[in-house]
Amino acid sequence: MANPNFNVCHKLELLKEEGRSGEPKRQEGEEEVLSYEFQEMLESLPKERGWRTRYLYLFQGFWCQSKEIQAILSFQKHFKSLQNDVVLATIPKSGTTWLKALTYTVLNRDRFDPVSSTTDHPLLTSNPHDLVPFFEYKLYANGDVPDLSGLASPRTFATHVPFGSLKDSIEEPGVKVVYLCRNPFDTFISSWHYINNIKSEAVSPVSLEEGFDLYCRGVIGFGPFWEHMLGYWKESLRTPEKVLFLRYEDLKQDMESNLKKLASFLGVPFTEEEEQKGVVHSISDLCSFENLKKLEVNKSSKSIKNFENRHLFRKGEVSDWINYLSPPQAERLSALMDDKLGGSGLTFRYN
């Protein structure tokens, strides 16, 4: 599968039109000017204090930024799935970068041998987000419509969009979805650190207390988190041949077993010869948090918008939340999870 070269062929007319009364408005903390029509639509949506930008908007039942709404509208209108497409889905800060690295390496191991490719493997010089592009942050960002005709099969993409807003775009038989889920305690702490590191200077920092309250009310990018997780969880139970549900904590505990599960789901299981050669172990090492974090491309480059890659790699630990949340906060989140996830069969490990 060739490294992607995404050429933009045109933009959504909605996002290109000029305002009907004066100049289009600019959202504080956003890079692009919004059209009058789009701004008018935004103003009709419920909104809350944003984390990285001034506001989050309740769009199609989940919270997101104005620029994400632009991209999602373009994606939903223009993306055409193909048989054998692979879509990696996560809620932010749940191991997205890790999942991209693992999936790319598994699918491309015939071209780039993880055992012998010590200097020429793409992961050594490219961030995983450059190898597996986001629908909403790369391909359809700013309302762009990319030309995907040159991509080799299986085309591999990523998204944070909840399943309810993704499903109509991936109805083609044979499309595979891999969802990686992380316990909500660590997801919150990781999100809080990351967003405060990359937020616009026009937006004040989010305190731990304020962020935690927003999180528990569901007001976080692509949240509520419980609805995001349950959407993919229920679909994985209904159509296990289409949606694979993985847990971050399980990967940390037993990477090789989960790599085998991932490869089998994607239709490229490891052969006995590969296992004897150490391919599974080599992929685990190549894609490990420790290895990715030390690479120069992940220290200095930028792969998602203008955010430095170094902010993608903080600790990658399980149970770091213990160092931040007070007992009352932990009790509140535990009770919330019991209420929202109870009876679903979706459970987590925290240490």
Automatic annotation (TrEMBL):
Enzyme class per UniProt: transferase
A GO BP entry: sulfation
Tree of life domain: Eukaryota
Keyword vocabulary terms for this entry: Transferase
GO molecular function per UniProt: sulfotransferase activity
Family assignment from sequence similarity: Belongs to the sulfotransferase 1 family.
Protein name stated in the entry: Sulfotransferase
Organism, scientific name: Brassica campestris
